[in-house]
Design the sequence.
């Protein structure tokens, strides 16, 4: 059974940093691209970043480019998102998701989300 | 402003058929697969349709997807009260080198 479990969220002040993690199980992790999607309170889904199975290719939304870094440790079946220089508008639930097959688009497996709150 | 355009709301009565549209461009819907998600309050999105018109085995056949050119649509037949939720379309965008979402459609079952 595929499982994705995010952790690392919390309450931080503007300008601070966090490292989000997503522990994956139930599939061959290295074979799939992985994605972070966020959802601000009361708002829609926003794609944040995608990383290829090998980790050699990364993609970022303009809103986070230069501040967020996606990475993965295939030996630990874990996806990461380093979030720096946090702003109030980064407040959201952050979901990790497994890609559909060989595509870079999210498929049917998402974690439950981890809440990041940026506030002074 | 979302790259993919969805109506903000839709409604129907039980048993009715409703359709939700998703409009994009040649760089996203026009050249890549479309996916549809259902989201209930406080929960993670649930995949309804993948690769334009494929349905996961656990999703009832009341849900169907289609794509034509740079637009896609999600149809729900035999509407039920439990279908009341937010619905999102998404696709990869080759020009942006990223995944794009529609703004979401809130479906109300009257």
Sequence:
């Amino acid at each position: 059974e595929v499982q994705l479990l995010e952790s690392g969220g919390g309450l931080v002040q503007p300008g601070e940093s966090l490292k989000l993690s997503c522990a994956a199980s139930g599939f061959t992790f290295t074979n799939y691209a992985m994605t972070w999607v966020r959802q601000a309170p009361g708002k829609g889904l926003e794609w944040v970043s995608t990383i290829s199975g090998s980790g050699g290719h990364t993609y970022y939304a303009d809103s986070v480019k230069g501040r967020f870094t996606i990475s993965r440790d295939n030996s630990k079946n874990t996806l990461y998102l380093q979030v720096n220089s946090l702003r109030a508008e980064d407040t959201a639930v952050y979901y990790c998701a497994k890609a559909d097959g060989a595509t870079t688009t999210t498929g049917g497996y998402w974690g439950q989300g981890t809440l990041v709150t940026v506030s002074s | 402003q979302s790259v993919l355009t969805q109506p903000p709301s839709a409604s129907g009565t039980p048993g009715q058929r409703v359709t939700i549209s998703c409009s994009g461009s040649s760089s996203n819907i026009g050249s890549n697969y479309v996916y549809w998600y259902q989201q209930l309050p406080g929960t993670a999105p649930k995949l309804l349709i993948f690769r334009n018109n494929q349905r996961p085995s656990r999703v009832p056949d009341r849900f169907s997807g289609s794509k034509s050119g740079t637009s896609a649509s999600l149809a729900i037949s035999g509407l039920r009260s439990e279908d009341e939720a937010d619905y999102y379309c998404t696709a990869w965008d080759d020009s942006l080198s990223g995944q794009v979402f529609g703004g979401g459609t809130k479906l109300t079952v009257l």
Notes: Chain A touches chain B at residues 35, 37, 44-47, 50, 59-61, 95, 100, 103-108, 110-113 (CB under 8 Å).
